[in-house]
Design a protein that fits this description.
Largest sheet: none
CATH architecture of the largest domain: Orthogonal Bundle
CATH class of the largest domain: Mainly Alpha
Strand content: under 5%
Shape: globular
Distance between the termini: 66 Å
Number of helices: 14
Structural class: mainly alpha
Number of domains: 2
CATH superfamily of the largest domain: UbiA prenyltransferase
Helix content: over 70%
Order of helices and strands: HHHHHHHHHHHHHH
Radius of gyration: 21 Å
């Protein structure tokens, strides 16, 4: 009981919470992960249009589903910050988060999370009736999975990464359900292993970032990482480096098999879809380089701030759109 009391002791709150604090809690920069909701509709848009579906209605349904998942993820981030408030206070950067810093009371944070969930699920009502139930189910499973992660799985080696990866897979399944298409095995496999790459990369990035902060005592970096994220005690730098490389390779190999399997429709002299392998490979390898340098502690932040990764992503998207829409299948 004494231990619990120490963990619940928060800094003195100075003044009311500001709107900026609630925006920070929602993690709007993490909404970029909702792009996974759009992947299925993007690859299926041409087939849906050929089957008579309105392109505008497909895009609208996909955007609504992505927005719903973004709000649900924000609610999950608030809950995660509630659980992580003590660990965040030990982190050189995360100690300034609104809950960890004491600017947002726990009661207010719980109410804010509930409000985000309610609005997110309310958006599902604007989806076509045939897909509405499956999207709501995918979101409910997503919230349950993230909540289980925050309460339990985040402290379990490997299970923490698999739980996070499942969240991305559920995003993809929700996006497919919103427009009435079935997710392919290729799509689910690439999503799962790419998500594992991102999760392992975040854990490696945390260790590298703390090492950069404590450069004069580099051997203390693993201990600092463990103080922030307990599961880090079960990982080592070598293990995370290997896991990042292995999951990156599996992601690229899985996508390469997709290119081989579906590339016959894009043959003009040779399989033009193979060209998308170039920016995909460069982007993943550049993320690994940036993580090793300790510039960022999250691959998502690298994608949002690094020009090289952004250029690779834009080139990949441009090539894919050009091949899917300019060439007849």
């Amino acid at each position: 009981m004494a231990r619990a009391a120490r963990h619940d002791r928060a800094p003195v709150i100075q003044g009311p919470a500001r709107p900026a604090d609630f925006l920070q809690l929602a993690r709007p920069h993490q909404w970029s992960k909702s792009v996974f909701v759009l992947v299925g509709p993007f690859y299926g848009l041409r087939e849906l249009a050929a089957a008579g579906a309105s392109a505008a209605s497909v895009v609208l349904a996909a955007v609504i589903a992505a927005s719903a998942f973004a709000l649900a993820s924000s609610g999950c981030y608030v809950i995660n910050d509630i659980f992580d408030r003590e660990a965040d206070r030990a982190h050189p950067r995360k100690k300034s988060r609104p809950i960890a810093a004491g600017r947002v009371p726990l009661g207010t944070a719980w109410f804010y999370a509930l409000a985000l969930f309610v609005v997110g699920f309310a958006l599902v009502l604007f989806l076509p009736p045939e897909g509405r139930g499956w999207v709501a189910l995918s979101m409910a499973l997503y919230v349950a999975n993230v909540s289980a992660y925050s309460a339990y799985f985040k402290h379990k080696v490997i299970a923490d990464v698999m739980s996070l990866s499942l969240g991305f897979v559920l995003r993809v399944m929700g996006g497919c359900a919103a427009v009435g298409i079935e997710p392919s095995v290729w799509l689910l496999n690439v999503t799962f292993f790419l998500s594992m790459f991102l999760a392992f990369g975040k854990r490696l990035g945390e260790r590298r970032t703390l090492a950069a902060v404590e450069a004069e005592v580099r051997h203390a970096a693993p201990a600092l990482a463990v103080a922030h994220r307990r599961v880090q005690a079960g990982y080592t730098d070598a293990l995370l480096q290997m896991a990042v490389v292995v999951t990156a390779v599996i992601t690229l190999m899985t996508y390469a098999l997709y290119v081989t399997d579906h590339g016959t429709r894009y043959v003009v002299g040779f399989n033009l879809l193979w060209l998308t392998m170039l920016p995909a490979t460069y982007g993943l390898l550049r993320i690994i380089v940036k993580l090793e340098h300790g510039v960022f502690d999250d691959p998502t932040e690298i994608a949002l701030h690094d020009r090289g990764v952004q250029a690779a992503g834009l080139l990949f998207a441009a090539l894919t759109v050009a091949l899917m829409w300019l060439l007849k299948p």
